[in-house]
Amino acid sequence: MKINVFLNSSQNTNGETAKLAQKFFDGEPYQTYNLIDYHIDQLGQVTNQDQFTELALQLKKVDIIAIGTPIYWNDMTGSLKTWLDIHRLVSDIYRDKKTVILAQGSNPDNSEVFRSINHVFETFTNRFSMRYCGIVTPTKVANKNITTI
Predict the structure, then answer these.
(1) Cβ within 8 Å of residue 143, ≥6 positions away
(2) Is the CB of residue 99 less than 8 Å from the CB of residue 133?
(3) For 34-55, what is each residue's pLDDT tens digit?
């Protein structure tokens, strides 16, 4: 059985980004991890509260990771950027995991914003030997969902 995960970087755990995940998964079961519920140290910080490894080990067990982000100030959320930044070492825990970005914002088809986010995730998924499946927006979810990636 496939294990699907929605990694939600929105501060609104049941907001528009979570609704986009529901549409994307199209009735398939999935587990949600809200970044807002985890303490992840900023790059360079070292605390005894960091939960990055705990979250990474959960993601190791999955087949598909849908990473959701609202668009704030023409970019992904700060919590998602922190999660990306803290991946200092190349590891195989994400190898072959299908990964898609779910992007929600007031102008969800802003190509300049998506070009930047797409570049970041192409680089990230390549570095960790993941299978990048692109970006899904509210207007594109009808054409790209869990059954088409």
Answers:
(1) none
(2) yes
(3) 999 999 999 889 999 999 999 9
Nearest to 84 by CA among 72, 108, 98, 101: 101
Residue 108 has pLDDT above 60, yes or no: no
Q: Which residue has the tokens 């993601």?
A: 59
For 12, the token pair is 């609104």
Q: In what order do the strands lie in the sheet with 4-8?
A: 31-34, 4-8, 64-70, 98-104, 131-136
CB 86 within 8 A of CB 124: no
